[in-house]
Amino acid sequence: MTLIVVIAAGLIIGGFFRVVVGVSAIVLPSTLRTLNTAGGIIAIVLGIAALLDLQAANSFLITLLALAILLVGAFEIGVGVARHPPTWLRALIISIGALTVVLAGLVIIDPSAGETLLASVLALALLFMGFRNIVHGITGHHPVSTPIDSRVTAA
Questions:
Q1: What is the predicted pLDDT for the residue at 37?
Q2: Model confidence at 98: pLDDT above 80
Q3: Domain-by-domain residue ranges, the chain?
């Protein structure tokens, strides 16, 4: 909860600075002044809303983290599908990516589960990705033996 309070305070303080810049910076074009003022007001409102309902802010941050990890898992699957020898490493990358997607999906489907369970699931997904990175670092990155078609690289 401390992190949420710090983020909310940062939003409020940063929002006030944006409003002050938007109101007082007469050297800026009017569109930038308007954007600064509007962005500041939005930041202040979001900061106050986070302070008023810490649990909702916490659930939102957990869901946002789960979405980010879901995307990372999807990219892991894409990396595994690419032609990287050896085959066992490709299989490991794909399986860790799929497991990461499943774990993040569980968090997204049921964000009301206990915070300890959610933190454990997300930590496990990050642990698997770290393990994959270590294995990939130990085995090294080998160039693709099959040449890439020129139609793919033509811009």
A1: 92
A2: yes
A3: 1-52, 54-142
Write down the pLDDT at residue 141.
62
How far is Cα 22 from Cα 3, in angstroms, rounded to an integer? Answer: 28
Angle (CA) 53 22 25, round 5°: 150
Other beta carbons within 10 angstroms of residue 42's beta carbon come to 13
What's the CA gap between 120 and 62, in Å, rounded?
A: 12
Higher pLDDT pick, 124 / 41: 41
pTM above 0.70, yes or no: no
Mean pLDDT of the chain: 81
Q: Nearest-CA neighbor of 64 among 100, 104, 102?
A: 104
Do 94 and 112 contact (CB within 8 A), yes or no?
no
The pLDDT assigned to 152 comes to 55
